[in-house]
Amino acid sequence: MGSALRELPSFSSISRHMRLLTALLFLSPAALAQDVTLTLQGTVDLNGTSDATAAEYIGSNPSAVAWDGTDAYVAGFNNTGSAVNAGIVKVTDALGTASIGAAFGQRSIPAFRGFSGLDLAGGTLASAFDAGTSDPRGIEAFDTAGNLLWSKAARGGSGVGIDPGFGGVDSGVGWTTFGSGRRSLQDAATGADIYTGSDGLVIFTAASTFWRDMDFDDATGDLWLREGNNVIHWVRTGGNSAGSSSIPFDPTDSDFVAIQNIAYCAVGTDSVVFYNDRASTSGGQVATDVLQAMDGAGNPVTIHLSGLTLADGNGAYDFAYDAASQTLALLDFASRDLHILSVSMGAPAAPGDACADAIPVVAGANAFDTTGLSDSGYHDGTCVSRDGFTDIWFVYTAAASGDHTFDTCGSDFDTVLRVLDGADCA
């Protein structure tokens, strides 16, 4: 096309706040990778729940979370060398006043044991508790006020999930245990056996049976499981049957590393699965390396954290998703924090990629980089067409009315410069 527009003639400033749009021609927009953005909505400090003298004591560290978009439930782990008496707490109005209630479901927790999972649906809170062996209270259900509904003897070291069933049948509280190749199922209201480890849905694959957690796709009933640190997906074909399986995440096995969790999230018409890649129990693990995501087909998804910087920890996290509010509860074992994040598909807007994200500029030279930016779709019929090419937005606030000159001299590609009056780009 023609030579670059190198300088904008002087003009009389009619506003002290202007937005500039530079259309950078001859740069094709890059293909977008799969991304998900987690934006912090609020954080609840759970350090008080580690105080053994407090009514809200749940153990030394939080290990499991359930979340309904308003209230959260957090269960604990005993990361000390002796038994403690601890349980579960309700965090009322987690994004508001965030009141932590007294612990319920208390029991004696042996050293280095605790709750492996919580799940919440239809007014039923299900819990899985690992005492190191079968326990009379291994799988339990409570109402939302913390009143016990029923108990099931089991070793609850493999998480728990509210199973939506398939085709309107076989819903209930799903769970499994080490050494089992099946999903057991309890009646959510009574705890009665629907299916057991002898006749439940087959979940065994070529991987081992060190089950750590499970979650379900509420729309299809598909199962998502952690076997050790593997991620396993079973496609549901019936209330008590599944067809094909896959292992979309199959790293070097860390079967004896606990607190390997997973959450399936339906985000609009998309889906994303969050899990923690915890290869060891050592400290100093970088949170952004441990926290991973994939789509429903098992393809990697890049996580972008907005408004939240996670400290290094020991890789132990749990997740709970509320589809109605499209928010994710992220529980950090090491820091004893509960973060509530909104979930949206795609990467966060890059600085300058849209009018709302315009980059402030000052008098003098202002360097810029258009890498990764897109075509904002702003077209005003000027002499040069820029459809499909990258652009970048700037904002300048004049100190006083007068003449101002803007140019893109020094750019190493052809440019077009537009000036819009006002802050809203209208």
Q: Would you kindly provide a written description of the structure presented here, covering whatever features stand out?
A:
- This protein is mostly beta strands and about 425 residues long.
- The chain has one helix spanning about 285-290; strands at about 10, 15-25, 35-45, 60-65, 70-80, 85-90, 100, 105-110, 115-120, 125-130, 135-140, 150-155, 160-165, 170-175, 180-185, 195, 200, 210-215, 225, 230-240, 240-250, 260-265, 270-275, 290-295, 300-305, 315-320, 325-330, 335-345, 360, 390-395, 405, 415-420.
- The strands form 7 sheets. Strands 4, 5, 6, 7, 8, 9, 10, 11 and 12 form a 9-stranded antiparallel beta sheet that branches.
- A hairpin with a 2-residue loop joins strand 9 (about 115-120) and strand 10 (about 125-130).
- The two termini are about 30 Å apart.
- About 40% of the residues are buried.
- Residues about 1-20 and about 20-35 have low confidence and may be disordered.
Quick recap:
The chain has 426 residues and is an all-beta fold. It has one helix and 32 strands.
The outline comes out as: elongated
Rg over alpha carbons: 26 Å
- End-to-end separation in angstroms reads 28 Å
Helicity level, as a percent range? Answer: under 10%
How many H/I helices? Answer: 1
User: Biggest sheet, in brief?
Assistant: 9 strands, antiparallel
How many strands appear in the DSSP assignment?
A: 32
* Strand portion: over 45%
What class, by secondary structure content? mainly beta
Average pLDDT figure: 88
Q: Unreliable runs, pLDDT <50, ≥5 residues?
A: 1-18, 21-33
